[in-house]
Amino acid sequence: MFTEIQLQTKKQEEFLSITRMIREIVKNSRIKDGIAIIQIPHTTAGITINESADPDVVSDISRMLNIMVPDRFDYFHQEGNSPAHIKASLMGSSALVIIKEGDLMLGTWQGIFFCEFDGPRSRKIWVKII
Amino acid sequence: MFTEIQLQTKKQEEFLSITRMIREIVKNSRIKDGIAIIQIPHTTAGITINESADPDVVSDISRMLNIMVPDRFDYFHQEGNSPAHIKASLMGSSALVIIKEGDLMLGTWQGIFFCEFDGPRSRKIWVKII
Amino acid sequence: MFTEIQLQTKKQEEFLSITRMIREIVKNSRIKDGIAIIQIPHTTAGITINESADPDVVSDISRMLNIMVPDRFDYFHQEGNSPAHIKASLMGSSALVIIKEGDLMLGTWQGIFFCEFDGPRSRKIWVKII
Question: Is A29 part of the contact surface with chain C (CB cutoff 8 Å)?
């Protein structure tokens, strides 16, 4: 089963929880056991699984990525968004979550985050359940 | 087939090889061809595949992550373990290994490592074989 | 279906697009819907999905990784290639791409890159389609 989600990001950089959306897709698929593949078709955004209870955690990830990958550097790519591309590769473009008894298997504190690094933009998320 | 492994980490930071455990689960599953998905339900630990022959390699990965993600920074999250969360996202929360002829397909030097960044703790590893 | 690709890298560090090779394998498999798992059996090389239109983007990723993971550091591992191992873990050893209607699902700007960090070497790429 394949589903495409549309997402409108609002800031230049933000981590948006997509856990609820993915969970709903899994429930509607009525697949009891398998895996969910979440893939994003963008090169200046990423996906990561991390703590969803305290929003400060993803803020800290985003802020530290800005230190690790500074805006000022002799980048060759002329569009000014090289840091966004680099952060995208550090976070990765897909996530994998096990499905058991019809539900996404996530740890107590885990959530799935869409990482916008070059927004605001219209974004897509592809979900495949097997 | 789904299996849960329990793991007790002993240090604040350590990379533990779980290759043998995963290999055994794959052999016991009697699945000849497929993939193994190894997922961890934690937000201050990660999983990575790297060299298992010389333990200095994973020490160097761990030590360089400590330089890249310093302990001292104006972190918003008040639990003091933001660096562990950030390293978890850099390493990722799942690994994927091809299964062929009933065995895990890994390169000669590759091992699968559980990366503890906020131990010692009781940890879990989920393994799904399809 | 399992396929092994051989690759000869030419430089110490380079990002090589393998999109066309993977796309051909998917087409030849005649599998209409599923996923492609691309795994590399090496510990000083990685795999990433990023922009393929402008080659400056992967140059910038490679150059920034060299700043993040400096050559000069008190590495324990005596082979001199610890930075390559660390970069391998940052990029990851596998990629996952959804297959739909017999084709790889990638965004307009996305390509799949083999990341050589310790070349030139003879390398392998494993592709599994399910």
Answer: no
pTM: 0.98
Q: Are strands C14-17 and B94-100 parallel, antiparallel or unpaired?
A: unpaired
Test B82 with A105 for CB contact under 8 angstroms.
no
Residue B107, chain C, CB below 8 Å: the answer is: yes
Q: Give the CB-side neighbour count of residue A96, counting CA atoms within 13 A.
A: 27
All structural domains of chain A? 2-129 (2.60.120.460)
User: Which residues in chain B come in under a pLDDT of 70?
Assistant: none
Judged by DSSP in three states, B50 sits in: strand
In chain B, what residues touch A67 (CB-CB under 8 Å)? Answer: 73
Note whether A2 contacts C100, CB cutoff 8 Å. yes
Instruction: Pick from C29, C66, C86, C122 the residue to mutate for testing the B interface (most B CBs within 10 Å).
Output: C86
Cα distance between residue A84 and residue B32, in whole Å: 41
Give the long-range contacts of residues A51-54, CB within 8 A, separation 24 or more.
A51/A109, A51/A110, A51/A111, A51/B43, A51/B85, A52/A17, A52/A19, A52/A109, A52/A110, A52/A111, A52/A113, A53/A109, A54/B77, A54/B79
pLDDT tens digits for range A24-72: 999 999 999 999 999 999 999 999 999 999 999 999 999 999 999 999 9
Q: Which residue of B has its CA nearest to C35?
A: B35
Instruction: Tell me what the mean pLDDT of segment C35-48 comes to.
Output: 98
* Predicted local distance difference test score (pLDDT) of residue B27: 95
CB-based contact C52:A90 (threshold 8 Å): no
pLDDT at residue B100 in the model = 97
Neighbours of chain C (3+ CB pairs under 8 A): A, B
Contact C54 A77 (CB under 8 A): yes
Tell me the ipTM for this assembly: 0.97
